[in-house]
Amino acid sequence: AEPVLTISGLNVDYGTDAGAVHALRDIDLTLNRGEVLGLAGESGSGKSTLAYAVTRLLSPPGVITGGEVHYHRPGGDRVDILSLAPRRLRAFRWQELSIVFQGAMNSLNPVHTVHSQLTDVLAAHRPELRKRQRTERAVELLGLVGISADRLAAYPHQLSGGMRQRVMIAMALALEPEIVIMDEPTTALDVVMQRQILRRLVQLRRQLDFSVVFITHDISLLIEFSDRIAIMYGGRIVEQAGAAEIYRDPRHPYSDGLLHSFPALHGPRRELTGIPGSPPHLSAMPTGCAFHPRCGKAFDPCAGRVPLLAPPADGPGRAVACHLHS
Ligand code: SF4
Ligand code: MG
Fold first, then answer.
1. What's the rounded mean pLDDT across residues 30-56?
2. Which atom of ligand 1 is nearest to the CA of 292?
3. What is the pLDDT of residue 161?
4. Which atom from ligand 1 is nearest to the alpha carbon of 301?
5. What spacing in Å lies between the alpha carbon of 214 and ligand 1's midpoint?
6. How sure is the predictor about 319, in pLDDT bands with cuts at 50, 70 and 90?
7. Boundaries of each ABC transporter domain copy (predicted)?
8. How far apart are alpha carbons 111 and 102 in whole angstroms?
């Protein structure tokens, strides 16, 4: 597999009155070309912070305190995202990497039509296109997400939530980025609509050849639509493996708990045991393995030492951060 985005040793702190708290610790993660990489974890685990940090949209009190993020161009060139100058960064964000945030559908401008919002993006970044070409491209983009051209003249309030969300996805694809990051892109929609949009997106990724980082707390959606999954807890990645592998054979007790928090997609029913307790606050992160207060398998070293993310003895191609496997 060829990497398109590599994150290494990434650390993010949030400044608070009581001092800095760690929001992301030692994140190592690779997105391969053409794949859908799912990021899972309860709220507060650092998923969104990771998306903001990687795209340089993190704002104070969040600060990147260490690590590197590289984008790999199709030819092999490496772009150091964390040191891009602001002007390059703006172009980079639409043309090479784009983002659809949680509730993005509410960020459409209410006083502008779909047509003008789509063509504005094109006008800003593709000045060589003439007006008519921009309109043609807008129609094409809407078509990609299954919206007919007669909706071009609509204002956002005239569209359903699902349609507005699809318009946002069309905008994210407008300049043919190599990477699309989706942070809870469909959370506000009903389940049927969520699946429809995600299915379309996964098809488009093959057709248009981009890679996706897909973030959601809904692990059943991740298993269905991702190729690989990274599971986060307390600002760290605690397990990373192929989606099917994680589903069949989760190694980290937290992954196992997450998988038991939803009904089986197929096959025998799973017991819905969930995970006792609630995720930790950044300002009160447990020592050692941050999961230890909730872990039914905690033993001697767990409260004292942080387990490092490493391949288990029998499983190259996956990694787990748990003393049971080290
Ligand atoms: Fe549980 Fe210990 Fe593994 Fe953490 S390191 S998940 S506490 S067994
Ligand atoms: Mg979030």
1. 93
2. 7
3. 87
4. 2
5. 26
6. very high
7. 7-259
8. 21
- Most ligand 1 atoms within 8 A of CB, residue of 297, 300, 305 to mutate: 297
Q: What pLDDT score was predicted for residue 75?
A: 85
Q: Where are the alpha helices (DSSP H) in 177-324?
A: 191-208, 219-225, 243-248, 253-259
Could you count the other beta carbons within 10 Å of the beta carbon of residue 106? 14
What is the number of the ligand 1 atom nearest to the C-alpha of 252? 6
Token pair listed for 124:
């800003």
Ligand nearest to the CA of 49: 2
pLDDT tens for residues 207-222? 999 999 999 888 888 9
Ligand sitting nearest the alpha carbon of 44: 2
Q: Return the H-helix or E-strand segment holding 284.
A: none
**H/E run at residue 142:** helix 131-144
User: What's the whole-model pTM score?
Assistant: 0.92
What are the structural domains of the chain?
3-96+179-189+210-325 (3.40.50.300), 105-176 (no CATH)
Which residue CA neighbors atom 7 of ligand 1 most closely? 292
* 168: nearest Cα among 102, 231, 213: 102
| Residue nearest ligand 1's atom 8 by CA | 298
Q: Are 286 and 292 in contact (CB under 8 A)?
A: yes
Taking residue 195's Cβ as centre, other Cβ atoms within 10 Å add up to 15
Can you tell me which atom of ligand 1 is nearest the CA of 295? 1
| Torsion angle, alpha carbons of 44, 47, 50, 56, to 10 | -90
